[in-house]
Specification:
The protein is built from 12 helices and 17 strands. It is an alpha/beta fold and 348 residues long. Strands 3, 4, 5, 8, 9, 16 and 17 form a 7-stranded mixed beta sheet that branches. Helix 10 links the parallel strand 14 and strand 15. Helix 5 (154-164) crosses helix 11 (296-308). Nicotinamide-adenine-dinucleotide binds at residues 38-40, 42-43, 153-154, 157, 176-182, 200-203, 206, 220, 244-246, 249-250, 267-269, 293-294. Zinc ion binds at residues 38, 40, 60-61, 86, 153.
Length: 348
């Protein structure tokens, strides 16, 4: 089958690789109908993810049709339309039982190398899904595959970040980064009751995309975002800040944007081990800071329902739909920010 593989820093390739087969009784094989290139794939592309060996199949955001289900799979059978969770969980360990699926003892991420469960990715014609009952969801009949696609990753990541921030109706949310995750955070914040969302990006066109979703754009390369957010909040700062870029610079910015008693949730992926935590300021200003990987299994049913109910429209961020065979160009466009979000279609 055709698949996108990692080939080294700044290099992916379209290659012919063996089709996956059932390995465990609770595995399923899914024929991929849609897969996306995620900001997290760019960390691989930039060579920042240890354990991505050359030849490893990339990709973790996908929908498809079950073509084979192992004998222990109960919830799915061949022909079912499904969306996959970008990270896997076993569903029965002590962490899963606590609802901390992102801390599962068998945690893995599709297409993220040997350090993340050694699971071949979904930018391919077929993907093997372990613990299929846990790591797949049926796509509601009224939704297209594309509408459900981001529920397996960026939408649910963003929705969960807002949830983790304990947003109260009527509050003001600042979102740092208007890439796909940030844009999903804008929609999630409104869906969870935000009165206003202030959307910050270095790129004007990205901030303007957020504006189309109802946010107030703040172009950080043209204006000081701290001064701008202060001005827009009467000098208080934002009740909630969602950091959707990754790395110490934007996390530090979040501390400057949040009001006293406010909450920061960072979801941007970073490989930087530590940063100077503003300890004394956070004490006196009573700041809550949370950072973590998404807990897709906790929130995916809510996001699927919000999309089905018309409260969130994830498709608005798709700028390019390409055949899987043009994935190399898709990575180039997404990395150079020519594309906001690239969806790959294996059978195009
Ligand atoms: P992306 O790279 O497409 O978008 C990032 C955006 O941030 C871009 O629009 C860029 O212009 C903007 N940006 C960069 N530096 C900035 C700065 N200093 N100030 C303001 N804006 C800035 O990525 P994405 O797909 O939107 O994902 C965002 C982050 O979320 C990535 O790090 C990704 O790996 C991460 N992510 C995390 C999880 C999780 O489980 N925690 C899940 C999905 C994605
Ligand atoms: Zn992702």
């Amino acid at each position: 089958m055709k698949a996108v593989t990692y080939r080294g820093v700044g290099q992916v390739a379209l290659e012919e690789v063996p089709e996956p087969a059932i390995q465990q009784p609770d595995d399923a094989i899914v024929k991929v109908t849609r897969c996306a290139i995620c900001g997290s794939d760019l960390h691989i592309y930039h060579g920042h993810i240890p354990g991505m060996v050359p030849g490893f199949v990339c990709g973790h955001e996908f929908t498809g049709v079950v073509v084979e289900a192992g004998p222990a799979v109960r919830a799915f059978r061949a022909g079912d339309r499904v969306v996959g969770t970008f990270h896997t969980a076993c569903g029965h360990c002590a962490m899963c039982r606590k609802g901390a699926y992102n801390q599962c003892r068998e945690y893995g991420v599709f297409g993220y190398g040997v350090a993340f469960g050694n699971l071949a990715g979904s930018q391919a014609e077929f993907v093997r899904v372990p613990h299929a009952d846990v790591n797949l969801r049926p796509i509601p009949e009224e939704l297209s595959d594309e509408q459900a696609l981001f529920c397996g990753d960026i939408l649910t990541t963003a929705y969960g970040a807002v949830r983790n921030a304990h947003l109260q109706p009527g509050e003001t949310v600042a979102v740092i980064g208007c890439g796909p995750v940030g844009l999903m955070a804008v929609q999630s914040a409104f869906a969870q009751g935000a009165a206003r969302v202030l959307a910050i990006d270095l790129l004007r066109d990205r901030a303007e995309l957020a504006e189309r979703l109802g946010a107030v754009p703040v172009v950080a390369s043209e204006t000081n975002p701290v001064a701008q957010v202060n001005k827009l909040t009467g000098g208080l700062g934002a009740d909630v800040v969602i950091e959707a870029v990754g790395g110490p610079k934007t996390v530090a910015l979040a501390f400057e944007l949040v009001r006293g008693g406010g909450r920061i949730v960072a979801v941007g992926v970073t490989t930087v081990e530590s940063f100077a935590f503003p300890l004394a300021t956070s004490l006196t200003r009573d700041i809550a800071f949370r950072i973590g990987l998404a807990n897709i299994h906790r929130d995916i049913d809510a996001t699927l329902a919000l999309v089905a109910g018309g409260r969130i429209d994830p498709e608005v961020i798709i700028s390019h739909r390409l055949p899987l065979t043009e994935a190399v160009e898709g990575y180039r466009m997404f990395d150079s920010r020519e594309a906001t979000k690239v969806v790959l279609i294996p059978d195009a």
